């Protein structure tokens, strides 16, 4: 929790402001319900698919006891330090705007599971659920830099929502950004971020472009930049889709393993190609997966096979 000092030298707490955030992500659902939800239901559909599983929905038995099917627990970790990019669209859940508290708490719970086995997690959150700069540029002719600055504010809101959800589960979290907002988060420092991670804290890089201060950077690209700076072992991106799709007639099947070159040759991609190129040049493997599937986040953070793995080698025939 951050404190400022007023002119009389006394501390002024910002806790009331954070309590408002908790009312959005924490108090909108009973805590027992949020932490116990594990039954799959219908939800987001991926291209060429129908009825992909979403985050779990808790159900009540006749005795009003919440029953659940817990995901497979994470027992070991392949990666020590990971940058986790959360798309703004996936944070919205079934809606197109705002943030779904069930998704926020699902993310927080599974990040907590990964941290418990020693994975150091840094997070970057998109802002498309609140504001899409490209849409406004196309519809209104707004200056692109101005539109992306508004998007930067959207990623700040999402960062604080994720921070509140994590801290409600007892996970120590720090938000950093090169975009100046001292009442809300720390200024970005590579050394301080690494130190937080080594102490077991989750670090969230807020602001578009992971807080690089450049509004024309996508969150994908700057997340890849931060992954290189903090020496991350992997870049994982949680979306509404199961991975990178291979179209085969009427069916669409997600690749299990492809190379960066093959990703680039396919044209449309769920990942910014500048970010993919940066990861390729720095030897950082990328995983793209569906974060709404219970257990996927903690498994992906720990290096288990989830979604599509993208690296230099690609598929081995």
TrEMBL record:
Extent of Polar residues compositional bias: 39-49, 57-68
GO biological process, one term: UDP biosynthetic process
Key word Transmembrane present: no
GO CC aspect terms: cytoplasm
Entry EC no(s): 2.7.4.22
Pfam families: AA_kinase
Any one GO molecular-function label of the UniProt entry: UMP kinase activity
Location of the Aspartate/glutamate/uridylate kinase domain: 81-290
Signal peptide limits: none
PANTHER family to which the protein is assigned, alphabetical: UMP KINASE (PTHR42833:SF1), URIDYLATE KINASE (PTHR42833)
Family: Belongs to the UMP kinase family.
Protein name in UniProt: UMP kinase
């Amino acid at each position: 929790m951050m404190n400022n000092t007023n002119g009389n030298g006394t501390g002024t707490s910002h806790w009331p402001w954070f309590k408002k955030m908790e009312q959005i992500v924490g108090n909108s659902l009973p805590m027992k319900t949020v932490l116990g939800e594990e039954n799959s239901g219908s939800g987001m559909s991926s291209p060429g698919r129908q009825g992909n599983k979403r985050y779990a929905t808790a159900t009540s038995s006749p005795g009003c006891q919440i029953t659940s099917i817990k995901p497979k627990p994470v027992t070991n970790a392949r990666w020590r330090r990971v940058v986790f990019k959360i798309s703004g669209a996936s944070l919205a859940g079934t809606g197109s705007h705002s943030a779904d508290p069930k998704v926020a708490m699902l993310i927080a719970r599974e990040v907590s599971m990964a941290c418990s086995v020693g994975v150091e997690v840094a997070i970057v959150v998109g802002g498309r659920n609140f504001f899409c700069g490209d849409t406004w540029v196309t519809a209104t002719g707004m200056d692109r830099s101005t539109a992306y600055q508004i998007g930067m504010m959207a990623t700040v809101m999402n960062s604080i929502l994720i921070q509140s959800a994590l801290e409600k589960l007892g996970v120590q979290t720090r938000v950093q950004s090169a975009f100046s907002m001292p009442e809300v988060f720390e200024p970005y420092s590579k050394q301080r971020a690494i130190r937080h991670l080594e102490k077991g804290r989750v670090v969230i890089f807020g602001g578009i472009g992971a807080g690089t201060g450049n509004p024309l950077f996508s969150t994908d690209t700057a997340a890849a930049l931060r992954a290189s700076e903090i020496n991350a072992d992997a870049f994982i991106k949680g979306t509404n889709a199961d991975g990178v799709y291979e179209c085969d007639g009427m069916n669409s099947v997600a690749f299990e393993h492809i190379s960066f070159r093959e990703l680039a040759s396919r044209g449309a991609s769920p990942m910014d190609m500048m970010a993919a190129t940066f990861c390729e040049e720095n030897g950082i493997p990328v995983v793209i997966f569906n974060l709404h599937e219970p257990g996927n986040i903690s498994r992906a953070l720990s290096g288990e096979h989830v979604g599509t793995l993208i690296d230099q080698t690609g598929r081995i025939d």
